[in-house]
Amino acid sequence: MPPPKDVVKIAIQMVGAIPQLIELQQTKPLASVLKDVCDAWSLPNAERYALQYADGRQTYITESNRGEIKNGSILRLTTSPDQEAERLYSGIQSNNSDVKTDSLKKLASLSQDVTFAQEFINRNGLKQIFSIVEEGNDTGEMLAHTLKAFMELMEHDFVSWETLSAAFIKKIVSYVNMNAVDASVQQLSLSILENMVPTSRLLFELVKKEVTLDRLLTHLQATNAELQLKAMALLIALLLAATDAERRDMMDYLREKNIRQFIHKNIIHSSEPLGDEMAHYLYVLQSVSLNLCERRMRTSMDPYSQEQRELLQSLRQTAFESESEAPASTFSTERRRSLCAKEFRKLGFMNNSNPAEDLRRAPPGLLALDNMVYFSRHTPSAYSRFVLENSSREDKHECPFARSSIQLTLILCEILHVGEPCTRTAQAFYPMFFGQDHFFEELFCICIQLVNKTWKEMRATQEDFDKVLQVVREQITRTLSLKPTSLELFKTRVNALNYGEILKLRQTERLHQEETLAVPVLELRERLKPELLELIRQQRLLHLCEGTLFRKISSRRRQDKLWYCRLSPNHKVLHYGDVDEGVDSPPIESLTEKIPVADMKMLLVGKECPHTKEKSSGKQNKDVLELAFSIVYDVEEYCLNFIAPTRYEFCLWTDGLNVLLGKEMTSERTQTDLDVLLSMELKLRLLDLENISIPDTPPPVPKPPSNLNFCYDFSHTEQ
């Protein structure tokens, strides 16, 4: 008979004793279980002991988490959390430096456990840690263990960051600003400040004042990659917590210090591969920088603003100042107004009598005007050539500069996500962004000339304006997807992708997407589907067997623990467990946690997952919702929660888990893969029918003849 549902078979170890194999009754109080275990080993005072997992994070077993114990788990009898907290609380106050260091090291390790952390904090342990930091002069191993323990204790959110004393904060700041400090101490200090900054305006201002941008840039230029990463994390935290005005000032200062060029040369093109966290920080830095354009993008032109009118007039004067021999001031008011209207029409404004009306739409608002002025001032020859070349064409064939610039600015804002909040896990930055100051304006200068080039290639008229801009959008997005490392390379590639190439690419994609709709082909398609779906199922299960590295994302910070999950080769057990940074594919034996596939009940995705319900809703969590899924397993309906690193991994894992559950694969990737396989298989099967039209219906069967006299009659013998 199978064991009762509320009983699990486990092993309990103790140093110097023979392990006990027991059947743990989950309904029995934990204190009674501990007493029975202690009695078996003749240990008095059972209340001084506790159970914890022997492997992994070695979490203490409590009444609240005992339900997570599985059959076959190995536990260890150890000192209870309150006894251990008391011992370490005394140990960190010892006058013996070796005892103190060992106690702090053990504290840093045990503080990851929420039960121990609560016991230690309840004994006012944080106050003792503050005292060690504030009064000590050590900057080596002991301080590193102290700061590590502090970070782990604060991670449980029992204590607010706003309760930290000014003396403690200044001491942490001093470690960041010192030169002769152990690198691990500086890394931990930077992490502490990074966590402080978002919690309150007061802490942000304190950190911003005490840790200068120059000091952060010094750490960014360090050869220690981890120190470089923590410095970038604090810089990003400061930028995100700043007001718009502060953020603009900080970015201006960083521009003066050529941070983009440094990042482009020493981080992006470093000999070491770029990690996920650094890629995310570069994405945020790019997003923050581009979002400085948002204010101008959302501001309509004010026709009564003298400054804006002068910018508008400068466009006309730069293009046409040499055309008229006589100065405009010698003309009458009416003649001057008529001449200006004519020139604004040549510039491509739709409302040539009042061109400011064209810039009232926001977005792109004043950002379009800024781009046009930048183009006219920094590339005057290209600007004049664009305007004058189109002025000499027939009215219906001229490419309107102003109208094109306004629409192009809007397209670039949409492609580069200007004005959109940063997402928490995105890593999609453009390397060329960091290789160029005034990136947005320089990109516009390249793309507005591309508009004129594409207009001529399409032999477009005014009625084709939207079609031309659609092609230009496609040229830009296709080229950006190649991740060019510089604007020069972008310019070369986007100009090579002419209208003819776009048509060829569209035709190729159309041929891949379109299938013959003849009934026989559709019937063949349906016959092939089961076989190809089985192939996709096998591929999904194979991917689960190879396994994937997942990252735990806490509510406070991104850089959390890594864990790995993979399916056993016989497809019967899911193995998972925590892994260290840098481990790509751990052996299945090292993954200590297991879930039998037979115990899996259902798969949850997105908002249905328990770990997404705990998070606050908002735009920042939208990308996490799209990557979240959970496995519900066992009779108690426990959950194993995942956040996939990419949408691709999300699709493969959810499909594979659905296969294990005996359900249909539902991800968009399944349909894409099926379409590709069907397309290939159909083309192979129909290869011999090339250039032969397949009728929609089978040819009709001829009617039987009116008589069968044409048959030889064997009944008559030959005479």
From TrEMBL:
InterPro entries hit by this protein: ARM-like, ARM-type_fold, ELMO_ARM, ELMO_dom, ELMO_domain-containing, PH-like_dom_sf, PH_domain
Pfam families, A to Z: ELMO_ARM, ELMO_CED12, PH_12
Keywords, alphabetical: Apoptosis, Phagocytosis, SH3-binding
Transmembrane helix as UniProt keyword: no
PROSITE patterns for this protein: ELMO (PS51335)
BP GO annotations: actin filament organization; apoptotic process; cell motility; phagocytosis
Domain (ELMO): residue spans on this chain: 307-480
CDD domains: PH_ELMO1_CED-12 (cd13359)
A GO MF term: SH3 domain binding
Primary role: Involved in cytoskeletal rearrangements required for phagocytosis of apoptotic cells and cell motility. Acts in association with DOCK1 and CRK. Was initially proposed to be required in complex with DOCK1 to activate Rac Rho small GTPases. May enhance the guanine nucleotide exchange factor (GEF) activity of DOCK1.
Protein's name according to its UniProt entry: ELMO3 protein
Name of encoding gene: Elmo3
